[in-house]
Specification:
The protein is mainly α and 315 residues long. The chain folds into two domains: 36-200, Cathepsin B, Chain A (Alpha-Beta Complex); 255-315, no CATH class. Helices cover 43% and strands 6% of the residues. It is built from ten helices and seven strands. It has helices at 2-21, 47-62, 72-89, 102-112, 133-151, 159-171, 187-194, 234-246, 281-287, 299-308, and strands at 178-180, 183-185, 204-205, 215-217, 228-231, 262-263, 268-269. The strands form three sheets. It has a three-stranded mixed sheet with strand order 3-5-4, with no helix packed on it. A two-stranded antiparallel sheet has the order 1-2. A two-stranded antiparallel sheet has the order 6-7. The longest helix is centred in the N-terminal third of the chain and has 20 residues, at 2-21.
Length: 315
């Protein structure tokens, strides 16, 4: 009993010693740019639509167009339809999931326009959180049925209408016209009224398996739309990021949140010097609470992370 007590006291003492010798994270404003309040994607994998909507809302603030709350689900509904069609036409060999990239939002803005959140909340009961898990499963089952029918030569000509009906049941029919601030709009005329031009923006990235200073299709499962990225050396990518922020432009950053260096609970992403495999659960938890030295990420390390990344199982 005495040994157990001494052992417990030693654990407590060690924990306190580590806490005393470590500094908790402290964030300070270096450059504050206008942004709208954070909104929750709830139980969906639609971060790409929420983050890009926030980016566009910041652009409206930057260009003097005022504060607007753009509907994320207006875009999501259209992109789900595109993913279903792509999946069926490619006979099940394409990505069909909730995930996506920033350019999916921009492509949808170019094709379909934008609407305010108040016009299209994208759920039957706005008081309930978003949850697309069942919808994702249902859409995949429906599309797999269509693929099986196509292989037998039995796919009906109105198969896309059935997908539209399923999406309308979940999100509600998309508005053709609406009134906002006492003005009548269509989704595309509202986009033009706000001055949102998707062609004003480009995607940049940094990988060595394609030539630098050229555009290429980034080979990621979520890039179902085969979006093009301008490939920059890593130093130039970071220089462009910092230059944009210093000049008053916000940035939308696509990131893989499945690796162990990201904690949604703490809202923090880190790349500690110590390898994750050498850390205990307590040390991993402490990583997101207390500062520790981080890696200076190199071009080669970034490239290797693209090739070998694995979804995390714990946070």
């Amino acid at each position: 009993m005495r040994k157990v007590l001494v052992f417990i006291l030693w654990i407590v003492f060690t924990h306190l010693l580590v806490a005393q010798n470590s500094e908790p994270y402290e964030f300070r404003d270096i450059k504050r740019l206008a942004a709208t309040p954070v909104k929750s994607q709830d139980k969906t994998g639609t971060c790409w639509s929420f983050s890009t909507a926030s980016f566009l809302e910041s652009e409206l603030l930057r260009t003097g167009k005022g504060t607007h709350n753009l509907s994320e689900m207006f875009t999501v509904r259209h992109v789900y339809r595109q993913k279903c069609e792509n999946y069926v036409r490619r006979m099940g060999t394409a990505q069909l999931s909730e995930g996506g990239l920033a350019h999916d939002k921009l492509h949808a803005v170019r094709q379909y326009g934008v609407v305010p959140e108040s016009i299209y909340p994208g759920r039957k009961d706005p008081s309930k959180p978003y949850n697309h898990r069942q919808l994702e499963l249902s859409l995949k089952n429906t599309c797999d049925t269509f693929i099986a029918q196509a292989r037998r030569g039995e796919l009906q000509h109105d198969w896309l209408r059935k997908i539209e009906d399923a999406l309308d049941a979940e999100f509600g029919p998309v508005p053709v016209k609406f009134e906002y601030n006492n003005i009548q709009f269509t989704p595309t005329s509202f986009r033009d009224y706000l001055g949102l031009n998707p062609d004003d923006y480009i995607n940049v990235t940094s990988f060595t398996h394609h030539p630098f200073w050229n555009y290429f299709v980034l080979e990621l499962p979520d890039n179902f739309a085969n979006g093009l990225f301008l490939n920059l050396p890593l130093n130039d990518l970071m220089r462009s990021l910092n230059f944009s922020l210093q000049k008053g432009y916000t940035v939308e950053w696509d990131a893989d949140v499945s690796n162990p260096g990201f904690s949604a609970r703490n809202g923090l992403a880190v790349a500690p010097e110590a390898e994750w495999s050498a850390k205990s659960k307590e040390q991993i938890a402490g990583t997101f609470q207390y500062w520790e030295p981080e890696k200076l990420v190199t071009q080669d390390q970034r490239q290797q992370a693209l090739i070998v990344w694995k979804p995390k199982t714990t946070t």
